[in-house]
Amino acid sequence: MTDAATDRFPPGTRVRTYRHDPPHHTRLPRYARGKRGVVVEPEGPGELADVSARGRGDAPVEQIYAVRFEARDLWGEGDHHVVLDLWESYLEEDSDDER
Amino acid sequence: MSGDHHTDATIARRVRRLETLLEEKGLITGERLDEAIDAFLAESSPANGARVVARAWTDDAYRARLLADGTAAVQELGYMDGSYQRLRVVENTESVHNVIVCTLCSCYPLRLLGPSPSWYKSEAYRSRVVREPREVLREFGLSLPASVDITVWDSSAETRYMVLPRRPDGTEALDEEGLAGLVTRNALIGTAAV
Amino acid sequence: MARINDVGGTQGFGAIDTTDDTEPFHADWEARVVGLFNTLRAQGLFNTNEFRDAIESMPPAEYLAASYYERWFTAICALLERKGVLGPGELDD
After folding, report:
1. Set B105, B122, B127, B156: catalytic member
2. B92 touches chain A (CB under 8 A)
3. Where does the record place the Nitrile hydratase beta subunit domain (chain A) (predicted)?
4. What pLDDT sits at residue A97?
5. pLDDT along chain A (99 residues), means of 10
6. In this structure, are B35 and B60 located in the same domain?
7. Is C10 in CB contact (< 8 Å) with chain B?
């Protein structure tokens, strides 16, 4: 939905979500922390909810990505998929050597 | 629900008291509140989503635009103007079924689907549909063949999702209005087929 | 560890009541709470993320015992107190 060239993670990029357990509002559910997924596409920019939730007007604007996860990567079993919309700072590129 | 939550009468009294306090402080007026409630109800109906679906079923070019950029395509029909949210429409096919949830709260495309049903906001639905969607859909009376891949869309940011259900067989004679009449709220969420 | 609202995958909530309730509100006060939310947010008293944060910050047992719009009301009151619009305990006077 945005110019992919300007985005850090183009569609198809293998990413991993952070394992962090922040002591504040966040939009990365616990079931998807530290998990591997694949970027579907960028969803467009948005204010980082973690900061905006503190009532601050200076929340950074980041790209949000739709990221697709396989059920067995989330739950150890299952044949379905789950897609989450995740802010860029929730994600890092997944390097093959850690697999 | 446990037995010690506020009774309806108690909370109704507290809401009324808050309204009075905020009126005294000059922050709201009863009229303003009535307008906000009317606007909430008037702009939101599953008939809106049904109309979008019927258009997509009868107009291939519209369907393509809807799947490529849901926000712009529903704006063509007069919905979601001025909304800060984006809409993504996900299409059911013979081999793919989509279903929508918000596990963290209750995000939902209000204007296109109308106020959400209680089950959509329940812990039971929110906890289970990401873990065992096939079983959950069966509880709604929708049994999908094992060959159908289920994708659950967990609305965790500012994009809202709507399902484009499959057009049923034998509906060739129906016009757009007739088709829209077949589309239910649950079909737009993905817990039913049309 | 996460907040009580973060229920994706949590076991034990049981069967889903799939009743297709078409009434948006089950009591008049629920409509008033939605009206309050929309009006106060539009006036910039809080944003949506602060509101979600206030709901999630309810003690877990209270969150689970509260109805949907009771959570909204609790969050609105908490935010109004935090912003100094309501004095502590003013609503209970």
Report:
1. B105
2. no
3. 5-92
4. 57
5. 65 95 95 97 95 93 97 97 98 76
6. no
7. yes
Residues belonging to chain A with any Cβ–Cβ distance to chain B shorter than 8 Å = 1, 27-29, 31, 43-44, 46, 49, 64, 66, 68, 74-75, 78-87
Q: Give per-residue pLDDT as tens, B40-75.
A: 888 889 999 999 999 999 999 999 999 999 999 999
Checking ipTM against 0.85, whether it exceeds it is yes
Are B16 and B53 within one domain? no
Q: Are residues B16 and B103 in the same domain?
A: no
Residues A29, B103: contact at Cβ < 8 Å? yes
Name the pTM for this structure: 0.94
Count of beta carbons in the 10 Å neighbourhood of residue C76: 24
Claim to verify: residue B78 and residue B174 sit in the same structural domain? yes
A4-98 has which fold? Answer: SH3 type barrels. (2.30.30)
B122 is in an annotated binding site: no
